[in-house]
Amino acid sequence: MCDQTFLAATFGPCDNCSANRPLMNIYLKNEPINYCSLCVELMACQGLAPGETLASLKTESENLKVKLEEERAKLHDVELHQVAEKVEALGQFVMKTRRTLKGHGNKVLCTDWCRDKRRIVSSSQDGKVIVWDAYTTNKEHAVTMPCTWVMACAYAPSGCAIACGGLDNKCSVYPLSLDKNENLAAKKKSVAMHTNYLSACSFTNSDMQILTSSGDGTCALWDVESGQLLQSFHGHTADVLTLDLGPSETSNIFISGGCDKKANVWDMRSGQNIQSFETHDSDINAVKFYPSGDAFASGSDDATCRLFDLRADREVAIYSKESIIFGASSVDFSLSGRLLFAGYNDYTINVWDVLKGTRVAILFGHENRVSTVRVSPDGTAFCSGSWDNTLRIWA
Amino acid sequence: MTIRTLRDHGQHYRPRMACLNKAEALVVEMQDQKNGVKASEQKLNVTTIPHVMSGQDILAWIANHMKVDTQEAQVIGTMLVAYGYIYPLQDHKKLVLKPDGSLYRFQTPYFWPKQKWKPEDTDYAIYLAKRNIRKKGALDVYEQEEYNKLHKWMNHKWDFIVMQAKEQYKAGKERKKADRVVLDCQERAYWIVNRPPPRTHSALDYGIDRLIDPNADEKKTLDYYRRIIIFTQQAIMRSRVKSSVSLGAIVKYVTTFKNHDPFLAPCLPSNPWQTDDDTYWELNMRNVEVPTKMRVERWSFSFFELLSDPRGRADFKVFLKKEFSGENLAFWEAAEEMKWGTAASMSEKAENIFKTFLAPGAPRWINIDGRTMGLTVKGLEHPHRYVLDAAQTHIFMLMKKDTFYRYLKSPVYKDIQKKAISPAPHNFSDAQLEQNAKNRKPGIDPIIIWQQEEEEKAKAAAAAGPIDIKKLMQNKLDRK
Q1: Set of chain A residues whose Cβ sits within 8 Å of the Cβ of B205
Q2: Residues A344, A209: one domain?
Q3: Which of A148, A363, B124, B264 has its CA 20 to 30 A from that of B205?
């Protein structure tokens, strides 16, 4: 497992105020204590103690940052490409467009696969959300949202509902029905409410909870049935553009990436930010967990994709080339984690060898930015959505 | 209402153009006198235009300089044209780099797309007005429409706009003809990039603006530093592993799953997306009677893999039934349902789980250590969705370290390994592939599958409930 969060207490009486709340595990004078988020806030905002000045706090924070880097470097004994030397090289790849899904009237912004491995939900700038059977290229359902720029969409694990949101600052859940003539908008349920645009949403392991990220800089966990906010996550200093849930059954973490160039790791139970990586030079457009859950990849406007190892707590690989100038908008791993598919703003998709750090293929075909790349649940194909209004399935 | 607020969506900061720095650096190199792209003078209509390049020269230079093949060089070149760093002299509305003798020029840096400077509608109006003055009817249809729209919206500024246009027109007339032609071309190219003709897109269209300007310096107040201190302290104390260990684990994962990745090894019988035959999905359905050999092999990789495959979990349950130790898995499943369930059902679920699994003398009592039991029972006084976390993890580790390995060595697993099928790879001829493409099967709607599974779960739950001895005896007595 990549985290020891199961050992930590994340709910119970706060050491300060004794109220029963979700707890954050922090350190006060090198002693571990459990404070609820309210007490942590109060502690952060209290006035200067005798002997403290703004300058002294600044030096303390900088010293700690240096110490963190030192701690991280202490255990850094080998590079990824060194460990990967013994791994055999990949052969040539022939990936072709197997299906082209046409039907959106404007830029495709987001897609998600259904767990049945063939259905896809996609959302676009004109407010339309379409559910396709990608195998037959039939459109199964269509929803018109009351707003434009639907930047987030997700398929429920059961396959019975979809969630979407965008400039309306909300995330709405639409239960799907077997009756093709039914107006899905009638049963719409507004779940999440942010103070600014919704950039990404994802169901957790069931249909009952949704995780959302927003341009207002926060992420939040919501209960679908009641619309209740279960937990909020503060820590980004700019718009949060992307999030991904951890795949392991025993970990309770998710990752988010934002315009502040940081990729943060969060504990879903307490709302605490437990790890942070700030090595990108520009906005992080996409983050995605490695299939084992111990690492994640990110794609950014600085035209690089990077691999971060959660257990070693460092960046372990950079996937970049001098000839790639334009930002990566979306990344996803193949089933084994050996391949990283990344969609770029120069209309291409680059396929990287995760272990060796080299590019194994470049795919052309889209006529505008590739905005989203998702591998199917059984790894047989991946879908790319683009601002040229089409989706392509590659295999 | 001006056009600007519409496009702003109430948000402000122009973002997402980090690529411009790299693009500018590349263009500067291309313009280098010695090592840049070859440029020469060309005669266009009646005037001679300096520093003109051909499309194929640009492509060759890019391919050489960046060490890429022609297709990729084409992409880079087209992006440079689309962003307005290079503009075509002929066919000026189509912003692509043609790999032939078509002529291109570098755009003057004054007209380069800049991070902080948005082309204003006022400037566009002045430009259109100027062209109108120069030659009536010189505007294209879409430009005429834009001109009319701007006239309506900017009516209050129109005198200023017309005056500016006249000034620029007069200034232009005083220039030499060659310079004027060049400047006109450049300006026209600039506006093609920033106000694209209909049915084309502008490369400068970056989507919506960010809300918060990350370049703005955050106010460095007390709590700003305190928060950093709190976060960094706990980050330092967090345990880490050596890179060799964690990277080794990543490599091991890749090697283990290598043969199961459809992109690396062919999936049997064939990839449905490639051959339009969905046998692969049929054989691997959630509740198929006889699984494939690859699927059974995958169960042995990790306990997580076994549990996440419903067929694997079912097989594991068969094994547990034989061992009479099904309560661990049942507790784990119940805890999962609580964790991911609706908020309203929390306390009810907590009570049921306590009664069934944790209370002393419970019908399906699970064996966990005293400390965890104590923590859990105490937590259940104020039930929340993660109250069973410690107990659930303990049980999961127990099953993972002990029961799972016994399962892999058990006759149940060996039996299913023997029974598992290994489909032969398809070998379709071209005619057959065409036939397949016409007969793609629609598949079952996931809603129906989910409804079926819910029914089966309900039946299983009813069957697995604790046996009511009294009722059983009553029935026996009644029958007597």
Answers
A1: 387
A2: yes
A3: A363
